[in-house]
Amino acid sequence: MGTAAIFLLVTVAAGLGAVLLRLPPLVGFLVAGFGLHAAGLAEPGYLGTLADLGVTLLLFGIGLKLDVKTLLRKDVWFTTVAHLVMSVAIAVGFLGLLGVIGFSMLEGEGLGVLALLGLALSFSSTVFVVKVLDGRSDQSALYGRIAIGVLIMQDLIAVIFLSVASNHPPSLWAFGLVLLIPGAWLLRRVWSRVGHGELQALFGVAVALGPGYALFDAVGLKGDLGALVMGMLLAGHPAATELSRNLFTLKELLLVGFFVSIGFSGELTWQAAAIGLLMLLMLPLQGIVTAVLLRLMRLRKRTAILSGLVLANYSEFGLIVVAVGSQTGLLNDEWLVVLAVAVAASFVLSSAVNTRGNEFAMALARRFPSKPNEWLHREERLIDVSGAEALVLGMGRVGRGAVRQLRDDYGMNVVGVEHDPARVATLRTGGFTVVQADATDIEFWGRVRSAGAVRLAILAMPFHAANLIALSQLRASGFEGTVAAVARYDDDVAELARHGADAVFHLYGTAGLALADEAAEAAFGYVAAEGMRDAQAERRGVLAPGPEPVSEPATGAGTGAGAGAGTT
After folding, report:
1. In what order do the strands lie in the sheet with 390-393?
2. What are the two backbone dihedrals, phi and then psi, of residue 92, each rounded to the nearest 5 degrees?
3. Percent composition of the chain: helix, strand, coil (DSSP 3-state, to 5)
4. 384: part of which helix (H) or strand (E)?
5. End-to-end Cα distance, the chain
6. Cα separations (Å) of 239 from 184, 234, 250?
7. C-alpha span between 30 and 1 (Å, rounded)
8. Considering only 153-167, 331-345, 456-470, which range has the smallest mean pLDDT?
9. How far is Cα 510 from Cα 539, in angstroms, rounded to an integer?
10. pLDDT tens-digit readout, 301-345
11. Cα separation, 248 vs 201, whole angstroms
């Protein structure tokens, strides 16, 4: 327990230090791992187990939310293959140049060794990218779905390599895994009966580790792949989102072990550290390759650049590829330390860049020529909100309730904005008027056609950061109407108010008031309750829309904006 206490205290302190420097906590966790190793502390046996559990639950959660059709998109599979080929070529040339300069580790290394290192460096980190997307609430955004699709394709390529290169190829029993397809039907039936709370979370962990990790590992396949497959087989269940949310905190805690464990990959030498840090020079080239390939797939400049930025890092799978290469005699053991330095440093660099990813994407996008609206991918074209008086950004439970209230009780023409295509289709079937778009997109209002009648915007997305970004973009666009937002915590309420929200609805703080309204209506009748509700309106932060429409936003988001803002 003493060792565990030391590890926890150092990790918490390093994570807090990263936060104070305005970096993600995972940067501190990486520093903690290298620091503890340098201090001479041995890696606890359970640290690797915690790391494996975290990665397994991460991939299981991805599977729960994955639409398999995403992998069949040309902009996913073509980008993955082309990026891999070009990344290997870049790495071979760069590492060959370092050998010529005089790094002894690279002297005499053949093309095969350089190509294998290039393959290891071509993968992006699933763990890191998903954490970035989670923080932005962007897993369902177009660039987020493309990034996850590319990551899964890369993981599959890595698994194929490991299966071929390993001394223990998959057994013939691996073909029996097809029985998991009908078996998933039984698991779905069981899932429907486990209820909510801790039993549901335990069910998810058991499925990820049992028929997922353990079964695949037993037949010679990567256990993490099994967790991903099980998640995909169970995706679409009505409780999939709830289970993913229940496992979120557990997954995040376990992944701390993953980041700390990277520092224990081997003994660090000055040459290994130097080569690992120099490998960061290849990341901008890989990011550019990704962005250019996606631009050729007719995506907007911002979408392509954001995808390139979020994927510009090295992967934990690269460490596994190098470890297998070392075990089979293809590589020197010291390369594992080099890759560990490169992976850790890429996380630090990518964290700093992606913290301001939207700003960088916008600045870079201005430097390149635009394309006509008709040239763009169908999910990237102009958004028509003709006649809308109110926009609700985020169509979860809160957003749907706001639309019903404004539409049915106030008689307003309301349009919802949602970036999840599956939810958009479901809502349209249910009678809602919804457009598919990313409300945190810096160019969102530049893509809106005929928004001059909009006088009320409600920010109802589940993540505070997403609402804050949307609010900033809304005000920056010149929108002068009323903006209301939801928040869960007192400091979030204050921050939204500082950034220009006219009203903030505290989900927890106002729950009692809403309950009192319902009770008063039941006890005293509709008319009396309405009077009470009017008296409380300002205190609750719920605003009725004003009678006069506001002027057009200054950025071309007003009536007819689509005709003049049809390029991106």
Report:
1. 434-436, 414-418, 390-393, 456-459, 482-487, 503-506
2. -60, -45
3. 65, 5, 30
4. strand 383-384
5. 57
6. 15, 10, 18
7. 22
8. 153-167
9. 9
10. 888 999 999 999 998 778 778 877 777 777 877 888 888 889 888
11. 10
Q: Which residues touch 450 (CB under 8 Å, ≥6 apart)?
A: 384, 385, 386, 387, 558, 559, 560, 561, 562
Under the banding of pLDDT at 50, 70 and 90, the label for residue 85 is: very high
Contact 348, 128 (CB under 8 A): no
In the chain, DSSP finds a helix count (H) and a strand count (E) of 26, 8
The amino acid present at 82, given as its one-letter code, is A
> Both tokens of residue 475?
């005000």
- Between the CA of residue 132 and those of 61, 124, 152, 253, what are the distances in Å? 15, 13, 16, 16
Q: Show the tokens assigned to 200.
A: 């549901």
pTM strictly above 0.85: no
Residue 369: other Cβ atoms inside 10 A: 6
Determine the Cα–Cα distance for residues 387 and 114; give it in Å rounded to an integer.
59
Strand partners, 457: 391, 483
Q: Are strands 383-384 and 482-487 parallel, antiparallel or unpaired?
A: unpaired
d(CA 267, CA 37): 8
Identify residue 96 by its one-letter amino acid code: G
Query: Measured over all CA atoms, what is the biggest interatomic distance in the chain, rounded to whole angstroms?
Result: 88
CA torsion angle 278 281 283 289 (round to 10): -140
pLDDT exceeds cutoff 90 at 194: no
Token pair listed for 248: 């979120």
The answer to whether residues 382 and 562 touch, using CB atoms and an 8 Å cutoff, is yes
